[in-house]
Amino acid sequence: MRAGYYRFLKPRQLARLVGLYALDRAGRSAYRLLSEQELLATRTSDTAFVFGSGRSLVEITPAEWEAIGRCNTISLREFPRQQWVRADYHVTGEVDFLDEYAQRLRENPLYRHTVFVVQGGLRAERGNELIGRRLLPRGACVFRYRRTARWRDAPPSRSPRRLVHAHNSIFDATNLAVALGFRRIVLAGADYYNKEYFWLPSGETRPYEYEGITAASLFTGAAAIVSLLGDWHDALAQEGVELSVWNPRSLLAERLPVLDRSLLL
User: Fold this and answer.
1) CATH number for the domain including 23?
2) What tens digit of pLDDT does each residue of 49-97 get?
3) Which helix (H) or strand (E) holds 125?
4) Which domain holds residue 10?
5) How far apart are CA 52 and CA 66, in angstroms?
6) How many angstroms separate the CA atoms of 106 and 55, rounded?
7) For the segment 165-202, what is each residue's pLDDT rounded down to a tens digit?
């Protein structure tokens, strides 16, 4: 980790990071930590669905969820609120309310056999606390990764140990799919034309949004997200990897093809 980052931290902030880093080491014994080779061996399909939390997810039909469930699934952020499909992998980076988040992971039966891909390193405050306090299901399979290319454009990493964060967590999860070797990667619930979420009624704003942001607001950084994922699509296509989007109204459809759903049903 670059030393320059820590020059901007107050002593109390740095002490918290160091304390959580030590706590993480103590909490790891509660879990089965996977090696990179063991993680790669968990893939059971050539297709992965990566799930954001956009409200378009409520439009997916039961038959479509059944078809999606025959593929591997990668969950992130607030997707554990769902009751639709088994989560094969769940990526943890930012967390808004840690105890509530962890409770959903422990209690949702669709996460009973999930591999938890948790950010690690001194700077991974939420990931270290999640492991250190043993908030995940006891005995769960866990793989630790570190972020790279925060808030800047970069091509996807080919190792799950280092995942590009770029402009938001959809990149970490999509990069995981690339690193795991999936040949077809479908982004679902990645809408970006507003800030509506699948667990809230249409038009309702999350109570913890920043001031001035409403459910009707364009997703922050949408243009940069669309641009970089479009670049990833173009580069991956040269390798025979298809990166597509599920929702035809998603802003990503400006650069990514919309999945032909007949390929699944």
Assistant:
1) 3.90.1480
2) 999 999 999 999 999 999 999 999 999 999 999 999 999 999 999 899 9
3) helix 125-132
4) 3-263
5) 18
6) 24
7) 999 999 999 999 999 999 999 999 999 999 999 999 99
